[in-house]
Amino acid sequence: MSGHSKWANIQHRKGRQDAKRSNLWTKLVREIIVAARMAGGDPDTNSRLRLALVKARAGNVPKDTIQNAILKGTGQLPGVTYEEVRYEGYGTGGAALMIECTTDNRVRTVADVRHALTKHGGNLGTEGSVAFMFQHIGQFFFAPGVTTEDAVMEIALEAGAEDIVADDDGSIEVTCDPAAFDAVQKAFDDAGLEPEVAEITYKAMNETKLEGADAEKMQKIIDALEDLDDVQQVYTSATFDDDEE
User: Fold this and answer.
1) What is the mean pLDDT of the chain?
2) Mean pLDDT throughout 13-25?
3) What pLDDT is attached to residue 12?
4) Regarding predicted confidence, which is higher, 91 or 20?
5) Assuming Cys at both sites, which of 48, 60, 138, 197 could form a disulfide with 181, CB separation 3.0 to 4.6 Å?
6) In terms of DSSP bridges, do strands 134-142 and 163-166 run parallel, antiparallel, or are they unpaired?
7) What are phi and psi of 100, to 5 degrees?
8) How close are the terminal C-alpha atoms of the chain, in Å?
């Protein structure tokens, strides 16, 4: 590792997201609607919907709300039609940003994203300006002390994982092709291993370490973006020094 802990950054991100409960249900419900619209309302055959349901339950979204979202996605109930859009940009210190959104009004969404970026010193880029800096992967994180690298490696590699990395703090990261995500997750479930994080994500191939005032500015950009209802996920190459946690 290069002076910072991936696990610390994961916990930092999760802690800030968990603190933002006001628009959490909105984001979770939209993801269910989009997932159901794209590949049907059966989570057994729709892996994206299955993952969305796991997150919704973890976020305490009521069962009726979840079911109605599925029905809206499949067209069995009337509702707003959302589309997915992705914006790219830069934050403090040239750190790259990819911003995934679901929206019923692209004009509103791009204006809101641009404002959130420029207000705090970032800027919106053109399509493809930073996407090449990220890998689309399945990612699992095990908290320090939960299991051993050997135990994870034996299960993960057999299930189709591509890489297992143990950090100095004892946390373990497993990555795989998005197509192998379900198989790897099932293998962990069958073995009774529960990762702290299990998601399909965009991982920066090169990180931008930020400290002090630069870290604070970058966090303001991320917070402003995540506060937008239309923004589903913010991916960044920025990592924060442990002191900023």
Assistant:
1) 89
2) 66
3) 61
4) 91
5) 138
6) unpaired
7) -95, 130
8) 17
Q: For residue 15, what pLDDT is reported?
A: 61
Give Cα separations from 142 to 57, 73, 102, 165, 221 (angstroms).
Answer: 20, 33, 29, 11, 28
Q: Structure tokens of 245?
A: 């946690």
Which residues, at least 6 apart from 209, have a Cβ–Cβ distance to it below 8 Å? 2, 3, 4, 238, 239, 240, 241
Burial code (b: 16+ CB inside 10 Å, e: under 16) for 61-100 equals beeeebebbbbbbeeeeebeebeebebbbbbbbebbbbbb
Strands 83-90 and 208-210: unpaired
CA 13 vs CA 60, 174, 197, 237, 245: distances in Å: 19, 18, 11, 13, 9
- Per-residue model confidence (pLDDT) at position 4: 45
Per-residue confidence at 16, pLDDT binned at 50, 70, 90?
Answer: low
Residues whose CB is less than 8 angstroms from the CB of residue 243 and which lie 6 or more positions away in sequence, other chains included: 211
Give pTM, 2 decimals.
0.83
Asked whether the beta carbons of 122 and 98 are under 8 A apart, the reply is no
